[in-house]
Structure formats: structure tokens, C-alpha cells
Amino acid sequence: MSFSLLAAFLFSPFLIAPPVKVYLIAYNTLSALAWGHVLVSLLVHLLNLDGNSDSYLFPLYERAQTAYLRIGTETAFVQTFAILDVLHVVLGWVRAPLPTSATQVFSRLFLVWGITEQFPLEVQFSH
């Protein structure tokens, strides 16, 4: 985040107590780092950078089919923290429409927990 964006965020006309601003900055930073970790884990798996595949010639397509087994739990864990986004709206800490935020968050949670966790064998043996 550039200094001007940080300054605009810290000194915006939308009045938020300084501790809340610090919390929101920390929350968004940790969220970005967590999603970055998921992305790096996916790339390590897809590109076989950790050498877990039998061969470096193992097709990318084949590794992509096992990506959920590798990062599914991490993705679900990180996505679950998005519930806090809805809480931030309810508390008035961020200006966002509650119905939109709730729909986005809970639809993703439904996909992560309500669908994929119900069919673990199908996910595991999809290739």
C-alpha cells in the first residue's frame, strides 16, 4: 500500500476510531498474506516445486486435478475468516451494503463447507 493510500485511509472523512483503523489495516494485511499463502501453495503444487510428484514431466493438468487435496483445507480456513467482513459491516466499521457483503461471504462459505466437504471422495478421486 502506498503512503498516499495509507494516508487517505487513515485520514478519511469517514470517522472511525484510530484503534479500529489499526485493526482493519492489520486484518486486511493478514487476509492478503493468508490468500498469498494459498496462492503460493497452489503454485508450488502445480509447478511441482516441492518435488512431491514422481516426475517433473507429470502433466500440469494431472497436478491441477489434485490441487484441492493439497490446498482445500487451507482455502476453507482462510475463507472462513471472511465472516469478519460481515461483522465489520454490522458494526459500522466499513461502508458496504450488508446484504451484498453477507451474500458474497455466505455463498462462498456454502461452496467451501456446504458442497465440497459433503463429497470428499468425489473430490479426492476426480482424476
Question: Into which percentage range does the β-strand content fall?
Answer: under 5%
Structural class: mainly alpha
Sketch the major β-sheet: none
Count of β-strands: 0
Give the end-to-end Cα distance, rounded to a whole number of Å: 40 Å
Helicity level? 55-70%
Can you count the helices?
7
Radius of gyration: 19 Å
- Low-confidence segments: none
Domain module tally? 1
Order of helices and strands: HHHHHHH
Estimate the global geometry from the Cα principal axes: elongated
Query: If you average the pLDDT, what whole number results?
Result: 82
List the helices and strands and how they pair.
Layout (H helix, E strand, L loop, with lengths): L2 H8 L7 H29 L13 H5 L2 H14 L2 H8 L7 H18 L4 H5 L3
Description:
The protein is an all-alpha fold. It has one domain. The protein is built from seven helices and no strands. It has helices spanning 3-10, 18-46, 60-64, 67-80, 83-90, 98-115, 120-124.
